[in-house]
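Continuing the series of single-chain predictions for the mutant panel. This is the parent chain; the variants come on the following pages.
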Amino acid sequence: MKIRSITVFCQPGFPPNRLLLQQLGIFAGHALTLYEQAGYEVESLRLATPPFASFLSLENLVEAALTLAIETHAEGFEYISLGPVPTNRLELLEPIPQVLAQTQNVFFSAQLTTPNHEVRLSAAQAAARLICQLAQVEPNGFANLNFCALANVPAYAPFFPAAYAQAGAPAFALALEAADLAEQDFSQAQSLQAARAALIAEVENHAQKLEAIGRKLTEIYGFACKGLDFTLAPYPAQGVSIATAMEALGLPAFGLHGSLFASAFLTDTLDQAHYSRTGFNGLMLPILEDAGLAQRASEGLLSTSDLLLCSAVCGTGLDVIPLPGDATPEQLYPVLLDLAALALRMDKPLTARLMPIPGKSAGDSTNFSFDYFANSRVLALKAQPLMGLLNARESITITARQPK
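Parent structure:
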């Protein structure tokens, strides 16, 4: 297991408050040292702000985003998330392609839902258009790595691109890359109960160590530790695949029937572990970031519908999903609607990071040369333009299902 990110949350202002950034950099460097001394590899330091509309203007967004990327990188932060575009400020989506064309360090997101548990159809339509625009920014469609659509996602989730802060004092949280824990424990267990007990013990053991360091940092700097996100994030390398972990339970191949049970078993097991939580704390199924998932998708065993189904029992949604390069906004819009409805009806946070790949069709190999991706095949997009009432610009309340 390693720490994917130490994510610091704050509002740096613009022009940026350099003294504050220096303090945040000192904090992040000290946190990095303490976690590494405890035996944890730390992949990155990241900074997440409140929604940028709260402290930046549309007129200077490109300049401000690039300046903040440079200033925060100088203090040791590899990436910065400028938070989500709210559903009532869709004009703020317009300059995002220009920003992402000039830097790989800035991340954005867009809300599909409102705090009143509404799905805003116009926001989903606008996000779909932006995804298609971002797919054309560079040849591999990689600009969409730095953007996602959010549904029912609260502040202080440490995984990018979903991360954003609320106004207030600086805080921090940890995003953990822990798929290997499940793979190791499940492959050695003699029963489902034993597999569950082993993973709970492993998670709680690590959590105690990580939380102790977090408390020490809070005592020194006064920054609140918002918690841990033990979403079992994978990595495209041997031994760090969430698909392989679930197959170790006896599933012939992830994507076949039985996958939903395995997903529910894993996330229910995480729910039983005791630790301070923030973010998703569920199941992450990013096709291109997991060698096992990439292989099963190449074999035709996974679709966007399969991934949404598994998200219903607690996941992060649709993440780095390779789609045909000719996908249209009208085809992506219903996918985002499905995700938003699922998030509100199940009262859970979900995201969509969709990647139309220029020049690729369903079934084509991706052929990326990128350390953080495992190659797969482009998934078919089983979607047609919506018509009539579903193609309006309304905001529709979707309430959480109430237990009988």
